[in-house]
Amino acid sequence: MKWQLRPTLDPELPSRFPELNSVILQLLFNRGLVTQEAIDNFLNPGFEEHLFDPYLFKDMEKALVRLFEVINTGGKIMIYGDYDADGVCSTTVLYEAVTGLGANVEIYIPFRDTEGYGLNQKVTQQIIDQKFDLVITVDCGVANVTEVKMFQDSGIDVIILDHHEEPLVLPQPLALINPNVKSCGYPESRLCGAGVAFKFVQAIIKWQEKHDLAVKLPLGFEKWLLDLVAVATVGDIVPLLKENRVLVKYGLVVLEKTKNLGLAKLIELVSQRPGKIDSEYIGWRLVPRINAAGRVNHASAAFYLLTAKTEEEAEKWVGMLDENNKHRQKLTERILIEAEAQVALIGTEAKAIIIDGEDWPTGVLGLAAGRLSDKYHRPALVFSREGDKYVASGRSIEEFDITATLKQCNDLLERYGGHPQACGLTIIGAEKFAQFKEKFLKLAAEKLTGVELVKSLAVEAEIKLNQVNWQLFDELEKFEPFGEANEKPLFLIKNLRVETVGTVGADGKHLRMMVSQDEDLNNLHKLIGFSFGQWCAQLKAGDQVDIVFELGVNEWNGNRELQLKIVDLKLSE
User: Fold this and answer.
1) Which of 202, 387, 430, 479 has the least C-beta neighbours within 10 A?
2) pLDDT per residue over 330-365, tens digit each?
3) Is the entire prediction scored with pTM above 0.70?
4) Rounded to an integer, what distance in angstroms lies between the CA atom of residue 310 and that of residue 119?
5) Domains of the chain: residue spans and CATH
6) What's the CA gap between 137 and 119, in Å, rounded?
């Protein structure tokens, strides 16, 4: 593994910010925060002052005028969502707000295996036949030119609330609210679907302040939706900077005291092991279970959990999601074994990995692609083949925009969409699949020429062991919530002397060491290396090592101690 140390900070910065710890200043510099205003906004984001006006979306007022026309006349509204955590949370955010206004609302979440992502013509016709007056898409819609035209031609207006990349051809709904579409006019492009839905609810709150409505949402209503927005924002792996940082920071506060019965039951289920509710907790404990509903069955189970009105109802759905998650884990492992066998046959000489299997469950394709991309540090596409239909999920590396590359293969694709590092696509026909494979691999080879395809660790700073203390830990806590574009900091310390070394765990799987630096035995620190147990046989007291680590806290029996968690380890040169 390659260690990539970030460039050292601008030498004049310490004199401009003498009150800041040099390590903290380096972290701020790494994030491009070099003015007092930028630093203050990052370390102390305010809810009201650091969120943009939702009316900066140029179609927002047009959308609200139509929404309230339909509500006031008792018309029927369809909310059309998506099956992942972001899509389900987006659907719930909008559903709770619009039903709170007394609207006549139904929701539709497509079945991943048979309908795929976004609108489809069959369901579009069913909605037309049922004579809905308004369709609002959440976390989808921006790529559905044909379906949106079907609705509009039938007299059913469409409002698109989406955040996915702008396609080559845009649909023509009544209102298009998507920060990733340049013409929308919004200054923050990296909101997730639930973030966009939240901006819509914010706009509703502002609207009702100026209009005489028969039913209004209560004061502060939108803030109680921030728990769902935080889950979706972390789950969709969008950058936790700027507006997203504000939404997640305050969403975590709401999550700690959530009024959402389903989320409360889910937290109760996964909190058997201690741990504070932070972005890591959301990403590793909550999101996989919400996602599991749509991966192995139907995502409506997750929606019913998040809209449960009784404890009994919530318990029923949380139990189902937990079982779905266990099933998802087994499916993923099976597909990975088969996928790895294919990789072994084709090798990893190419700059991208493309594999396919017959009738692989589409719900776990993205997980398999993510594992392959992470292991081999290449963009990876995993296809499920059913007859002449090829459905794939893809995951990519920082150096390769996978969705932009799909745009260059547009003529071979039935449908596609996604983000720079994640995508989904469908191809019809074995010949087109073969042509796509050839073209995609060629484009990957061109774009990744000269790129060293080796997994790397982004190291924030090289520090000394005596800089690791509670003051540093307290300062680092101000950087939370951690996530995409604001990763938990990794530090490098070189030339540590091993004082003691051993293993922990029933099978000796984990490494534990006491280390010192510069012959200072008054400043010993404990290191823990999970799954580094094999190093015990290679190390002895007196050896010198370099480590990349995360700083955390180990708590047991009411005690707290700083914990240096090894992420990678090398013998010192």
Assistant:
1) 387
2) 999 999 999 999 999 999 899 999 999 998 999 999
3) yes
4) 31
5) 54-225 (3.90.1640.30), 347-447 (3.10.310.30), 457-571 (2.40.50.460)
6) 8
